[in-house]
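It is worth pausing here to work through a concrete case rather than discussing structure prediction in the abstract. The textbook approach is simple: state the sequence, then state the predicted structure, then interpret. We follow exactly that order.
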Amino acid sequence: MTFNTIKHLFKFSKSQQTGIAILFGIIIILQFVCFFVDFNSLSKENPEKQKWLSLQSEIDAAKLENRNYVAKLYPFNPNFISDYKGYKLGMSVQEIDRLFAFRKQNKYVNSAEEFQKVTKVSDSLLNTIAPFFKFPDWVSHKKENGTYKDFPDRAFAKKEKIIAIDINGATKEDLIKIYGIGEAISIRILNQREKLGGFVSIEQLNDVWGLTPEVISNLNTHFTIAKLPNLHKIDINNASLKELSQFFYFKYELAKQIVKYRSMNGNIKNIEDLIKINGFPVEKANFIALYLDF
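Step two, the predicted structure:
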């Protein structure tokens, strides 16, 4: 290849020369940009990511606080410990199961020592939770030797002839005289009576929290239903959802089922219709019917 031939290859028109000059200029500028500019400083984080990262310290602090959190205990009756409650207290599954098995026999623990005997919890755990045990009032009336206090004004002495009185006319003082009932439980019975508008069956005392089978047996001996109280009956076919759910034996879900049944099947004619509804307390149907107007 001759020199003239090579020289011919480098001959450009004016417009080509301008284009080559511009290209070289761009290359040089880009080189300077790459050399002098720090592209790391120009990268920007996602604003949402930055927002969450700014909260990281608060999140970490909250986790640490939660890790160090110790649940505050309030007085409770150990007879009614649930699975979750037992777990939170530090009881093992076996210890909780022993308590459940004991309660299924319709028995109650009445002291911290009896609780440990039934559940076999350790001394250290018992010492931690026992100060929060709260037993029914009648238990606190026991003497240290395990017998009950003798109330001098007891109305129903063991050798006296028992005259049963109407539970709907009983006063707090009448109830307290009964073996095993204290002031708190007597008030609880009276409050239950007021909610219902009166008892229609002695069996309803089973719905009062804190009454043991022995105490209920005593109540059955000393009280009766002489006559039905003047009840404000619930119009089962026209009562609203709110009115139905306020009745002691109709919880909100059952009240909804009753309203649904009415809308689909028409008027409820008798208690047998109500028994068909899912969740209805069939075992209490006889006295629930007395509070309803069909």
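Step three, interpretation. The CA atoms of residues 83 and 228 lie 41 Å apart. The beta strands are 165-166, 223-224, 234-235, 292-293.
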